[in-house]
Amino acid sequence: MPTLDLSPLSGPLMLAFMISYMLYGVSMVQIFFYHVHYPKDKLQLKILVWLVFILETATTIVIGILGWSMFGKGFGNPLSLMDVDPTMAALPFINGIVASIVQNFLSWRIYKLTSIIWLPAIISVISLVGCGFSFFYGARILQLGLHFESTFVVATYVDIWITCSAVSDVLATTAMVTILLRSSSSTIFKTRNAIISNLVKFTVETGLITAIWAVVQLVLWLKIPRQNFHYIFYFGIARLYSNWLLATLNSRLYIASSGQVITIGTQPPARPTFWTDLPRIRPVDDSWPDMDMRHLGPVVRVMTTKEIKDDFQMNVISIGPSERTDNSTIYV
Question: I want to staple 131 with a disulfide (CB 3.0 to 4.6 A). Which of 67, 96, 139, 186 is the partner?
Answer without folding.
Answer: 96
